Amino acid sequence: MLKPMSHDAGTPVARPIDPGVRIGHVHLKVADLDRALAFYCGVLGFELMQRYGAQAAFVSAGGYHHHIGLNTWESQGGSPPPPGTTGLYHVAILYPTRAALADALYRLAEAGIPLQGASDHGVSEALYLSDPDGNGIELYVDRPEDQWPRTPDGELQMVTRRLDLQDLLASRNP
């Protein structure tokens, strides 16, 4: 029988999830599949792994079956959800190195895609934007865990500071 979870602000009753669990992929509803592919493949550089006509496509980095599924099953010609509604806040795409994140910033600038924000969180550096369908996207790189900011008691202390975009671009390998 399942144990109930606490809905208080306190610690959940259930035991923690296995630390090896990872978020594997995300599926996004898009209005126009070709437009979405132009952004995810053409700008960000994901590879098209498989396409199902005009209704769905799967893209990845490094040949994985898919990191992002794009589909028009319920959204062909649709519009983004209005502000003040529930749903996905953003998809976070983890880059392996600061130079790779800098290359993503360069690609966005070359394509004329504006950032909505850029933050240094102490644990990571992040770029925030929306895809052509209004889905929130975070492109980020983690710092090594031994560099994460901590309180005197050793607890994690994330921050939000302005990210120096020129310094980030300077780390790009052309």
Automatic annotation (TrEMBL):
Keywords of this entry: Metal-binding
VOC domain residues: 22-142
Superkingdom classification of source: Bacteria
InterPro entries given in the database record: Glyas_Bleomycin-R_OHBP_Dase (IPR029068), Glyas_Fos-R_dOase_dom (IPR004360), Glyoxalase_1_CS (IPR018146), VOC_core (IPR037523)
Gene3D superfamilies: 2,3-Dihydroxybiphenyl 1,2-Dioxygenase, domain 1 (3.10.180.10)
Pfam families: Glyoxalase
Designated name of the protein: VOC family protein
